Amino acid sequence: MLHSGSRGIGNVMGRYFIERARREAERLDRRLPDRDLAWFDEGTALFDDYVEAVGWAQDYAMANRREMMRLVVESLRRHLPSFSLADEAINCHHNYVARETHFGESLFITRKGAIRAGEGELGIIPGSMGARSFIVRGRGEPQSFCSCAHGAGRRMSRTEAKRRFSREDLERQTVGVECRKDGGVIDEIPGAYKDIDEVMARQDDLVDIVHTLKQVLCVKG
Fold first, then answer.
1. Span 66-104, pLDDT tens digits
2. How many whole angstroms from its chain centre is CA 67?
3. Phi/psi class of residue 14: alpha, beta or left (left: φ > 0; alpha: ψ in -120 to 50)?
4. Which residues contact 122 (CB under 8 A, 6 or more apart)?
5. pLDDT of residue 83
6. Which residues are designated catalytic?
7. C-beta of residue 205 within 8 angstroms of C-beta of residue 141
8. I want to staple 30 with a disulfide (CB 3.0 to 4.6 A). Which of 25, 159, 183, 205 is the partner?
9. Do strands 178-179 and 217-218 pair parallel, antiparallel, or not at all (unpaired)?
């Protein structure tokens, strides 16, 4: 199981368009309670540019994952000759935008910290460095716009995790997992995340668990 986003370009695009939206709100004299609530009107050139940029970043993220998977599989085959692939690879976007039809309307759906869980669709819900992860099948719940939680989610910020936990805490919480246990990854310590089992129990109306995974190796880079 591997993850890669758009390697920073999505963040750059986001900041660019946020600033453009703020300037557009000022130009149109939109009086907003918060300048971060600025938007682009559908049908305008800026709106179309933004949608195109978001799509490009998401395609780039998928290309990253495919290349990472290719390299990992090549390495496994080189060192473990008996290794073989079976069934299918599951590609699972999170923190993304997609145009979908719900309740008879064409909508832009933003899934922040969420994945699509359409009926019968396979998805990945990862835990932390020390917790379990899950392969799930969506139940297509319309009230959630066919979505479910992407993972446990953070209980605290990265800064708070670094302040509260030590390397000894990290070593204790990742016993049995071969992974980095140095100060550079304390912000990813399992204790900084919510209980993944509780999260899964609270969304059993959105997905069915197909496989439960427990990592023995976690590589962060």
1. 999 999 999 988 999 888 887 778 988 888 899 999 999
2. 18
3. alpha
4. 88, 90, 92, 135, 136, 137, 138, 210
5. 84
6. 150
7. yes
8. 25
9. parallel
